[in-house]
């Protein structure tokens, strides 16, 4: 018996052997992680090191991983965290999940909780609630008076706020330049707020522009950043932070309070007006809130529930409209500053058009503004905007949850309850989707031989979603981008401040990490 014990390993030897095994396994995983771009699943922590190691360039790292994995991979979260999900940029999967098998995928309760800043609105609704809200929204967006009101608001705010502000900045001629993403933030907030409530915030007026961005503008950005944080970390983590009211969760709670204050105040103001006064407001009751309030109330809905519905609809609209414009315009002018030949072509095109109105410039002269109708022939401008959205989609990913077990077109099995992340940012940068020149900014890819804008299927160009949930405000959003871009390009020359790096920020909206500083000067009359 004593001889047998002499051959048995001691506890220290067993511990040493286990440590050696774990060390060799960790070393093997580390070598594998360095050799490949796809995320490695580590014991206990899963693929969380991939996220933490790529903070600041998460979308580019995910694009590299998808390229190496053939377009789809399963992200493994920490053990017991219920943070596993499927990531894909396969157009066939997009078509399957968002269009042909739309009923098999919902937004899901997890997504609604992560993006609870919009309440129970259309952006997070599912099933019967989504059908009802989509019907109301489609009716409002399809109303000719609403479309006319929004388009006139875009041109009006461009004429009275954006162009005068940039004219003032050009006259100041600061050698350090100014933060143009902040300008677009204010401009898009002024447009979306006026479109929703027929009321002017005037955050971009020359008098107000020296003050910080209003709280309601800051609130939407804070909410977007908090939503991404909730997507990255385990649910128990951010829920604990919410309970403790610390960090991003505290800022999110403050942002929600600001949004509630602004929106409920507008609802109360509208209610307090008589019908005669309301019909005399700018737009003649064609703003978003007026049309939603005119919609018949469902039986059994209380006044409080009605106000909540109006609040959620307005906040959802502001998120969708404001964030699209600010992100798209920022990256559009970043691209033009680095591709002067494209800028020259657009300028040549819009100079052939007749402006809708003019604005008196500081020190004499006039600046031109184009409305949506005037820009209809500007196909190269339209193509350049689409190409910008392909490479820099304002919403870099879309998310769904499987209602039941399913199989994707490539054979990938999807279990019930699995979250599926569609990486729209990666889709624009994959050779198999857009060709070997997918990394190049080339508006010509959107033009036919006769110069007309070429249509691409939404499951390939999913910037405005795909299937029944396709963006209702797509054409209005594109019009707003073109109205602002044409006014800036025609009247001013924009150049980047050399020492300022411009990079995407990790967020549910593709803002820049540190803003975009530019110098601006007036163009000489042709």
TrEMBL record:
One of its GO terms (biological process) is lipid metabolic process. This is Alkane hydroxylase MAH1-like. Gene3D superfamilies: Cytochrome P450 (1.10.630.10). It comes from the Eukaryota. InterPro entries: Cyt_P450 (IPR001128), Cyt_P450_CS (IPR017972), Cyt_P450_E_grp-I (IPR002401), Cyt_P450_sf (IPR036396). Heme binds at residue 471. Its cofactor is heme. Belongs to the cytochrome P450 family. Keywords: Heme, Iron, Membrane, Metal-binding, Monooxygenase, Oxidoreductase, Transmembrane, Transmembrane helix. The chain crosses the membrane at residues 14-31, 314-336. One of its GO terms (molecular function) is heme binding.
């Amino acid at each position: 018996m004593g001889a047998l014990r002499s051959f048995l390993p001691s506890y220290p030897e067993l511990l040493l052997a286990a440590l050696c095994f774990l060390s060799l396994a960790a070393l093997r995983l580390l070598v594998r992680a360095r050799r490949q771009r796809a995320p490695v699943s580590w014991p206990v922590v899963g693929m969380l090191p991939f996220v933490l190691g790529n903070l600041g360039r998460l979308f580019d790292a995910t694009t590299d991983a998808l390229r190496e994995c053939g377009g789809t991979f399963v992200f493994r979260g920490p053990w017991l965290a219920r943070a596993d999900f499927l990531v894909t940029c396969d157009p066939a999967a997009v078509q399957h999940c968002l269009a042909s098998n739309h009923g098999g995928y919902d937004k899901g309760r997890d997504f609604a909780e992560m993006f609870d800043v919009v309440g129970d609105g259309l952006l997070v609704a599912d099933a019967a609630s989504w059908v009802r809200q989509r019907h109301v929204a489609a009716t409002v967006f399809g109303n000719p008076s609403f479309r006319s009101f929004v388009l006139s608001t875009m041109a009006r705010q461009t004429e009275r706020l954006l162009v005068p502000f940039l004219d003032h900045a050009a006259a100041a001629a600061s050698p350090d330049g100014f933060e143009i993403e902040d300008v677009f933030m204010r401009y898009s907030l002024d447009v979306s707020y006026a479109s929703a409530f027929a009321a002017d915030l005037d955050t971009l007026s020359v008098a107000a522009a020296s003050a910080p961005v209003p709280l309601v503008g800051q609130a939407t950005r804070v909410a977007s950043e908090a939503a991404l944080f909730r997507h990255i970390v385990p649910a128990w983590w951010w829920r604990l932070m919410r309970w403790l009211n610390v960090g991003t969760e505290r800022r999110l709670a403050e942002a929600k309070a600001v949004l509630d204050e602004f929106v409920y105040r507008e609802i109360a103001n509208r209610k307090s007006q008589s019908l005669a006064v309301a019909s005399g407001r700018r737009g003649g009751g064609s703003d978003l809130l007026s049309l939603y309030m005119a919609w018949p109330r469902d039986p059994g809905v209380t006044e409080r529930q009605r106000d909540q519905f109006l609040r959620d609809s307005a906040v959802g609209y502001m998120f969708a409209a404001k964030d699209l414009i600010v992100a798209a315009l920022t990256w559009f002018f970043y691209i033009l500053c680095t591709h002067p030949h494209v800028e020259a072509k657009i300028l040549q095109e819009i100079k052939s058009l007749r402006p809708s109105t003019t604005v008196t410039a500081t020190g004499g002269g006039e600046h031109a503004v184009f409305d949506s109708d005037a820009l209809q022939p500007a196909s190269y401008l339209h193509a350049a905007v689409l190409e910008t959205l392909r490479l820099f989609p304002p919403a870099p990913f879309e998310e769904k949850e499987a209602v039941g077990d399913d199989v994707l077109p490539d054979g990938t099995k999807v279990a019930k309850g699995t979250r599926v992340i569609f990486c729209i940012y990666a889709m624009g940068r994959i050779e198999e989707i857009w060709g070997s020149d997918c990394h190049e900014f080339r508006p010509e890819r959107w033009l036919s031989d006769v110069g007309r804008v070429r249509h691409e299927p939404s499951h390939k160009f999913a910037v405005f979603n795909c299937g029944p949930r396709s963006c209702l405000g797509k054409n209005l959003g594109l019009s707003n981008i073109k109205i602002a871009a044409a006014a800036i390009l025609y009247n001013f020359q924009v150049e980047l401040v050399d020492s300022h790096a411009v990079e995407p920020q990790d967020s549910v909206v593709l803002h820049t990490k540190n803003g975009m500083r530019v110098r601006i000067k007036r163009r000489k009359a042709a």
